[in-house]
Design a protein that fits this description.
136 residues; alpha+beta; Thiol Ester Dehydrase, Chain A; 3 helices; 5 strands; 24% helix; elongated
Protein backbone atom coordinates (compact mmCIF):
# COMPACT_ATOMS: atom_id res chain seq x y z
CA UNK A 1 0.00 0.00 0.00
CA UNK A 2 2.92 2.35 0.59
CA UNK A 3 3.47 2.60 -3.19
CA UNK A 4 0.11 4.36 -3.56
CA UNK A 5 -0.29 8.00 -2.68
CA UNK A 6 -3.11 10.49 -3.02
CA UNK A 7 -3.08 12.10 -6.46
CA UNK A 8 -1.30 9.21 -8.19
CA UNK A 9 -2.79 8.18 -11.54
CA UNK A 10 -3.38 4.43 -11.44
CA UNK A 11 -5.05 4.00 -14.84
CA UNK A 12 -5.95 5.87 -18.03
CA UNK A 13 -7.82 4.69 -21.08
CA UNK A 14 -9.84 6.00 -24.02
CA UNK A 15 -12.78 4.22 -25.62
CA UNK A 16 -13.92 5.12 -29.13
CA UNK A 17 -17.70 4.82 -29.55
CA UNK A 18 -19.62 4.66 -32.81
CA UNK A 19 -23.28 4.23 -33.59
CA UNK A 20 -22.44 0.56 -34.21
CA UNK A 21 -21.15 0.37 -30.62
CA UNK A 22 -24.50 1.64 -29.36
CA UNK A 23 -26.47 -0.89 -31.39
CA UNK A 24 -24.30 -3.73 -30.10
CA UNK A 25 -24.71 -2.50 -26.52
CA UNK A 26 -28.48 -2.22 -27.00
CA UNK A 27 -28.56 -5.86 -28.08
CA UNK A 28 -26.46 -6.98 -25.13
CA UNK A 29 -28.35 -4.93 -22.55
CA UNK A 30 -31.86 -5.15 -23.96
CA UNK A 31 -32.15 -1.34 -23.87
CA UNK A 32 -33.60 -0.49 -27.28
CA UNK A 33 -34.71 3.06 -26.47
CA UNK A 34 -34.51 4.79 -29.88
CA UNK A 35 -32.69 7.83 -28.41
CA UNK A 36 -29.65 5.56 -28.58
CA UNK A 37 -29.80 5.01 -32.35
CA UNK A 38 -32.28 7.36 -34.08
CA UNK A 39 -31.51 11.05 -34.62
CA UNK A 40 -35.14 11.93 -35.31
CA UNK A 41 -36.34 10.46 -32.01
CA UNK A 42 -33.50 12.07 -30.05
CA UNK A 43 -34.32 15.46 -31.62
CA UNK A 44 -38.06 15.04 -30.98
CA UNK A 45 -37.44 14.81 -27.22
CA UNK A 46 -35.05 17.76 -27.19
CA UNK A 47 -31.72 15.92 -27.10
CA UNK A 48 -28.65 17.23 -28.93
CA UNK A 49 -28.26 13.93 -30.79
CA UNK A 50 -28.12 10.19 -30.30
CA UNK A 51 -26.80 9.39 -26.82
CA UNK A 52 -24.67 6.58 -25.49
CA UNK A 53 -26.43 4.50 -22.86
CA UNK A 54 -25.67 5.71 -19.34
CA UNK A 55 -24.79 2.23 -18.16
CA UNK A 56 -22.41 1.82 -21.11
CA UNK A 57 -20.62 5.02 -20.09
CA UNK A 58 -20.53 3.88 -16.47
CA UNK A 59 -19.17 0.47 -17.47
CA UNK A 60 -16.46 1.97 -19.64
CA UNK A 61 -15.44 4.32 -16.84
CA UNK A 62 -14.66 1.54 -14.37
CA UNK A 63 -12.89 -0.72 -16.89
CA UNK A 64 -9.40 0.81 -16.48
CA UNK A 65 -9.71 0.41 -12.70
CA UNK A 66 -10.68 -3.26 -13.09
CA UNK A 67 -7.66 -3.80 -15.35
CA UNK A 68 -5.38 -2.11 -12.79
CA UNK A 69 -6.83 -4.19 -9.96
CA UNK A 70 -6.63 -7.45 -11.91
CA UNK A 71 -9.70 -8.70 -10.06
CA UNK A 72 -13.21 -7.18 -10.18
CA UNK A 73 -13.83 -8.70 -6.73
CA UNK A 74 -11.59 -5.97 -5.27
CA UNK A 75 -14.25 -3.34 -6.06
CA UNK A 76 -16.18 -2.55 -2.87
CA UNK A 77 -18.39 0.29 -4.13
CA UNK A 78 -18.86 2.28 -7.33
CA UNK A 79 -20.98 5.39 -7.74
CA UNK A 80 -21.36 8.15 -10.30
CA UNK A 81 -23.58 11.08 -11.13
CA UNK A 82 -24.59 11.49 -14.75
CA UNK A 83 -23.79 15.14 -15.47
CA UNK A 84 -23.82 15.37 -19.29
CA UNK A 85 -25.00 13.08 -22.04
CA UNK A 86 -22.46 11.38 -24.30
CA UNK A 87 -23.52 12.41 -27.80
CA UNK A 88 -22.32 10.00 -30.50
CA UNK A 89 -21.89 11.69 -33.88
CA UNK A 90 -23.22 9.58 -36.80
CA UNK A 91 -20.01 9.97 -38.82
CA UNK A 92 -17.10 10.33 -36.40
CA UNK A 93 -18.55 8.87 -33.21
CA UNK A 94 -16.95 10.07 -30.00
CA UNK A 95 -14.26 9.06 -27.54
CA UNK A 96 -14.88 8.50 -23.84
CA UNK A 97 -11.67 9.11 -21.88
CA UNK A 98 -11.03 8.00 -18.32
CA UNK A 99 -8.33 9.04 -15.85
CA UNK A 100 -8.32 7.19 -12.51
CA UNK A 101 -6.49 8.83 -9.59
CA UNK A 102 -6.08 7.92 -5.95
CA UNK A 103 -8.43 10.25 -4.06
CA UNK A 104 -8.02 8.92 -0.53
CA UNK A 105 -6.41 6.06 1.36
CA UNK A 106 -8.02 4.68 4.51
CA UNK A 107 -6.17 1.65 5.90
CA UNK A 108 -6.62 -1.05 3.25
CA UNK A 109 -9.37 0.72 1.28
CA UNK A 110 -8.51 3.17 -1.49
CA UNK A 111 -10.90 5.63 -3.07
CA UNK A 112 -10.25 6.06 -6.78
CA UNK A 113 -11.62 9.25 -8.32
CA UNK A 114 -12.51 9.02 -12.00
CA UNK A 115 -12.43 11.88 -14.47
CA UNK A 116 -14.59 10.82 -17.40
CA UNK A 117 -14.83 13.04 -20.47
CA UNK A 118 -16.27 13.02 -23.98
CA UNK A 119 -15.87 15.87 -26.46
CA UNK A 120 -13.68 17.68 -23.90
CA UNK A 121 -16.53 17.81 -21.36
CA UNK A 122 -16.88 15.94 -18.10
CA UNK A 123 -19.78 13.50 -18.46
CA UNK A 124 -19.75 11.78 -15.05
CA UNK A 125 -19.53 13.70 -11.80
CA UNK A 126 -18.42 12.44 -8.41
CA UNK A 127 -17.36 9.19 -10.06
CA UNK A 128 -15.70 7.23 -7.30
CA UNK A 129 -14.67 3.64 -6.78
CA UNK A 130 -13.75 2.20 -3.40
CA UNK A 131 -11.35 -0.71 -3.79
CA UNK A 132 -8.97 -3.03 -2.02
CA UNK A 133 -5.85 -2.35 -4.09
CA UNK A 134 -3.53 -4.96 -5.53
CA UNK A 135 -0.64 -5.81 -3.24
CA UNK A 136 2.55 -3.86 -3.91
Amino acid sequence: MSALEVGAVVAEKSFPLTRDSLVRYAGASGDFNPIHYRDDVAASVGLPGVLAHGMLTMGLAIQPVIEWLGDPGRVLDYQVRFTRPVVVDPEVGTVVSVVAKVGAIDDDVVRIDLTVTASDQTVLGKAQVRVRPPQA
